[in-house]
Amino acid sequence: MRRVSNTIAATAEPRGNLEAVEQLVRQVGEVRPEALVVLGNLAPKGMPHAYSHLFQALASAQVPTFYVPGPEDGPIENYMREAATIETVFPYLHGVHGTFAFASGYTLFAGMGGRVSDNQQEMRNEQSQLCYPGWEVEYRLTFLNELKDYQKVFLFTTLPAHKGLQQSGSTVLAELVKSYKPRLVLVAGKEPKHEMLGTSLVVIPGNLLEGNLTLINLHKQTIETRNMFASAGEGKDR
Question: How far is CA 221 from the centre of its chain?
Fold first, then answer.
């Protein structure tokens, strides 16, 4: 059996495109990462059955896989129902929306999908879109206080506020990152980027529909972004 590398493979926004997901699975088969991360939006709006097809395709990679839904993955029951069903059959698939799951190497994956609002008075929404006030995210992640000894990887679909990434973001998420000091923060976004936020590496892996797949080796501290749709060998170091 081929040895598994110390690498996390990450991408975002599959939007139910099975052709792109199948290409992703082939790339994962070549790289054999320790973990695969997929950040929402996971399925096309109004197509709840797309979650089942997506999760079954991801399961075929046979790699520990962690994911969160995006703002467009409402209503939440469509995502939750299919995630609960598939994770019973394939226990190496892990939805970590407002919760956590363990990976090898004493590593914990945790996250919160949807849009996170810094307006503490904004009403949460899990129907037309997924939107959560910052206080709810803070509350949901308080379990991390009991898991201080684990190396942490955070998954978000809202960017933590960070001047270096040159995009608007959530100050609530930025404070959570500074408080819990995860080793890695993976965030949905179209253009691959990475910056340090305090002691945490923040990586936008890029959009799957653009062919982007980012490989992060936390031990060697290397980041490589590949375009899966380009010719072999045209991956680019960042």
Answer: 19
Cβ atoms within 10 A of the Cβ of 148, count? 9
In angstroms, the CA 1 to CA 92 distance is 18
- 154 in Cβ contact with 182 (< 8 Å): yes
- The answer to whether residues 220 and 6 touch, using CB atoms and an 8 Å cutoff, is yes
SS3 75: coil
Over residues 89-108, the pLDDT tens digits come to: 999 999 999 999 999 888 99
**Terminal CA-CA length for the chain:** 30
**pTM for this model (two decimals):** 0.93
Amino acid at 115: R
Strand, helix or coil at 37? Answer: strand
**DSSP label at 150?**
S
Please, which residues have CB within 8 angstroms of residue 127's CB and are 6 or more apart in sequence?
Answer: 74, 75, 76
- φ, ψ at 63 (rounded to 5°): -130, 140
How is residue 30 written in tokens?
Answer: 């070549």
